[in-house]
């Protein structure tokens, strides 16, 4: 599989990464055995980047990956971990904590759950409004010196925060949502990353299934967080599914699936971008891997842009209560 380096200082990873969140949390019930089989298949097929968060299933996702790692070549893999999100016993969200002492606590537990001596990329899940980013990055820089982590990443922060963090320690990559329905990073965040030599790991490349070609259910049951997403509600959902249908026609004309063309579009935006696919099953992973063989010429790119123009999505990508705390969504200046 093609390899892409995460920024100028980060690791060399597969051109497609596996996002493991859905194997434990937030998309309804998941099958443990199928999750393990999917991780094993991903590695067998050349995927080396596995992404998780210590709060996915309150540690369950890290333990799942840790179980998978027992029979996988650890040194050839890059494990990316997000930390800092606080959750309660009922799954509720209670803010973020990126104090230096908390970071050392979080990483200790992650290392134990993963069953590894180091984490390849460690990043705060969101900006903690009560802790200067310089303090958080400084604490992670100490962990790099001590060998507990190898690279420092960021997630869902804006250009100004990226600059402040990078001034303390080189940042390997920014993890942020990027898809045909979510192109906000193109204005300021992506140019800033490129100026500083910071890569992008793009999640939500299928807009949580909206443009996958497989959306056919109401998310209101089984703990699926999409039930609260503005893009999955009422008229917004109807409008977004119409966009998905238009993309489906473009894909069909080229003999590929909507998911494959959507993933290929993100991958085509630059060699410094690595799409993360949240496949929970081997059949979905097989389909996603097919995106690597999709070549998009100028005609195809024009057809995709016509099907889903910039800004066409109906509804925000997160509920307002969450957007209010996302540094990446703050106006410039």
Automatic annotation (TrEMBL):
It holds the Pfam family Aldo_ket_red. Residues 16-307 form the NADP-dependent oxidoreductase domain. One of its GO terms (cellular component) is cytoplasm. Transmembrane segments: none annotated. Keywords: Oxidoreductase. Coiled coil: none annotated. This is NADP-dependent oxidoreductase domain-containing protein. It comes from Muricoccus roseus. The lineage of its organism: Bacteria, Pseudomonadati, Pseudomonadota, Alphaproteobacteria, Acetobacterales.
């Amino acid at each position: 599989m093609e390899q892409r380096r995460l920024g100028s200082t980060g690791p060399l990873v597969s051109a497609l990464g596996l996002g493991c969140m859905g194997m434990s949390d937030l998309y309804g019930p998941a099958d443990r055995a199928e999750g393990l089989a999917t991780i094993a298949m991903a590695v067998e097929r050349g995927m080396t980047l596995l992404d998780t968060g210590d709060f996915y299933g309150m540690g369950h996702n890290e333990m799942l990956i840790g179980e998978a790692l027992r029979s996988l070549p650890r040194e050839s893999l890059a494990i990316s971990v997000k930390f800092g999100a606080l959750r309660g016993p009922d799954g509720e969200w209670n803010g973020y904590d990126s104090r230096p002492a908390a970071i050392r606590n979080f990483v200790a537990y992650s290392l134990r759950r993963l069953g590894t001596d180091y984490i390849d990329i460690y990043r705060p899940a969101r900006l903690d409004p009560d802790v200067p980013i310089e303090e958080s990055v400084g604490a992670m820089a100490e962990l790099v010196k001590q060998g507990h982590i190898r690279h420092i990443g960021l997630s869902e922060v804006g250009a100004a925060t990226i600059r402040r963090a990078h001034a303390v320690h080189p940042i390997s990559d920014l993890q942020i949502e990027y898809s045909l329905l979510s192109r906000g990073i193109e204005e300021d965040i992506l140019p800033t990353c490129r100026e500083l030599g910071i890569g992008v790991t793009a999640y939500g490349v299928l807009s949580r299934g909206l443009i996958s070609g497989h959306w056919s259910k109401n998310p209101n049951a089984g703990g699926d967080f999409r039930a609260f997403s503005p893009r999955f509600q009422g008229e917004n959902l109807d409008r977004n599914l119409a966009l998905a249908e238009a993309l489906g026609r473009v894909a069909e004309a080229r003999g590929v699936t909507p998911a494959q063309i959507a993933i290929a579009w993100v991958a085509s935006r630059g060699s410094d971008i690595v799409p993360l696919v949240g496949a929970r099953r081997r059949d979905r992973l097989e389909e996603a891997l097919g995106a690597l063989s999709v070549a998009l010429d100028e005609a195809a790119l024009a057809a995709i842009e016509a099907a889903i123009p910039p800004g066409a999505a109906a509804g925000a990508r997160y509920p307002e209560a969450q957007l209010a705390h996302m540094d990446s969504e703050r106006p410039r200046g």
